[in-house]
Design goal:
The chain folds into three domains: about 120 residues, Alpha-Beta Plaits (2-Layer Sandwich), CATH 3.30.70; about 140 residues, Alpha-Beta Plaits, CATH 3.30.70.1900; about 80 residues, Orthogonal Bundle (Arc Repressor Mutant, subunit A). The protein contains eleven helices and 14 strands. The N terminus is likely disordered.
Length: about 375
């Protein structure tokens, strides 16, 4: 395993809206649009790039660390929460409608950077041709620390609920696993906890306890495919789940405490993978089924990428290994987004690929589809 990149340090700011020792916080920005601008389907890639650039402008070392310097990402970014218009193959913003964008941080240097940033917010976010005005910000998840979050309490309820607002998925044997199995949930939370807190717990022992003692009491779940990150498709679940403890759980009170601590931690860290691209947004409690769904164009794009990926894989004589899958996903992502009306240059920018390479892949993908139709 490669050595972990040294984490940057940052002195506490002179002014901040929360204590200087804060390690976790969640914000929500309220945004509005002046015009019915088109919003490209994978705009979460643009939000991710915009946020990292905001950090880079004042703290390049921290930005580099957030981008690629650690095994776990110390932040989550949501999709835009609000009403969209659909027009042909595009999403459109509704003028004078409020959109909410959630940002969480679970790493002290980042929470302190956010404290200064909210004091000097830019006027707008530009996502290609779409402009969103930043009106105000609020605290969405209370500022806290890891020791405070893990403070023992005399009693705990025997059950708790978690709601998953956006598609949530785990990686398992090279595939997506779209089910909230308790060991997967708490493995996801504990990895992040152990990576960013100074109070790590034994992972194997705790997950064995979860396997034996945590039971699913009820659930309301729906699965869907969504294009997430720079390429490829994720099959995930949304909905809510209620978890309870078996009678034998009381034999290990320290694990019962950790079970409840990590549930409190879940809204800050998100669930599963690709949380910096809007997936795995999690809340404590059983939320109503009226939680807004993803715009349908995102689902359509995901389904098209998945369909094309399978076609390209079927055409390749050697389908084993990750290289064939990676090439098929790249071709499928480029062609599907091109079919949705995006320019090759915009796709190249999002994928961090040379324009000529994207152009070549688009031609090869079209040729493969034509050959398949003959």
């Amino acid at each position: 395993m490669a050595p972990r990149k040294r984490r940057p340090t940052q002195p506490p700011p002179s002014r901040h809206p929360w204590a200087a020792d804060t390690e976790l916080v969640g914000l929500v920005l309220e945004l509005t649009a002046n015009a019915p601008d088109s919003l490209y389907t994978q705009y979460t890639v643009g939000l991710h790039a915009w946020f990292l650039d905001q950090v880079r402008q004042t703290n390049p070392e921290l930005s580099a660390y957030l981008h690629d310097g650690q095994s776990e990402k110390p932040f989550t970014l949501s999709r835009l929460d609000g009403d969209f218009l659909t027009s042909g193959k595009n999403l459109k913003l509704k003028p004078n409608t409020t959109y909410r964008w959630y940002i969480t941080a679970l790493y002290q240097p980042l929470t302190q950077w956010l404290a200064e940033w909210v004091d000097h917010l830019p006027d707008m976010i530009q996502l290609r041709r779409a402009v969103l005005n930043i009106r105000r910000w609020h605290i969405a998840l209370a500022p806290t620390t890891y020791p405070h979050l893990s403070t023992p309490t005399p009693t705990h309820p025997q059950s708790l609920s978690l709601s998953f607002l956006t598609p949530t998925s785990f990686r398992r044997k090279g595939h997506h696993f779209p089910l909230p199995v308790p060991t997967n949930l708490f493995h996801s939370y504990l990895r992040r906890w152990n990576d960013f807190s100074d109070h790590p717990f034994n992972q194997t022992a705790f997950l064995d306890w979860v396997e034996e003692n945590v039971v699913i009491q009820r659930h309301r779940l729906e699965s869907m495919k969504v294009a997430a990150g720079k390429k490829g498709v994720v099959t995930g679940f949304t909905g809510a789940i209620a978890l309870g403890l078996d009678s034998g759980a009381s034999q290990h009170p320290e694990f019962s405490q950790l079970f409840h601590t990590l549930a409190q931690f879940a809204p800050y860290c998100g669930t599963g993978h690709k949380t910096p691209f809007g997936l795995g947004q999690t809340r404590l409690g059983w939320l109503s089924p009226e939680t807004p769904a993803l715009p349908s164009m995102e689902t359509l794009l995901a389904e098209r990428i998945s369909e094309l990926t399978q076609q390209f894989l079927a055409q390749r004589q050697r389908q084993g290994g990750s290289r064939a899958q990676d090439i098929a996903e790249t071709w499928a992502t480029i062609l599907a987004r091109r079919e949705m009306g995006e320019s090759l240059q915009a796709i190249a920018d999002d994928l961090d690929m040379p324009y000529q390479t994207v152009k070549t892949y688009a031609k090869l993908a079209r040729r493969a589809i034509l050959n398949n139709d003959r």
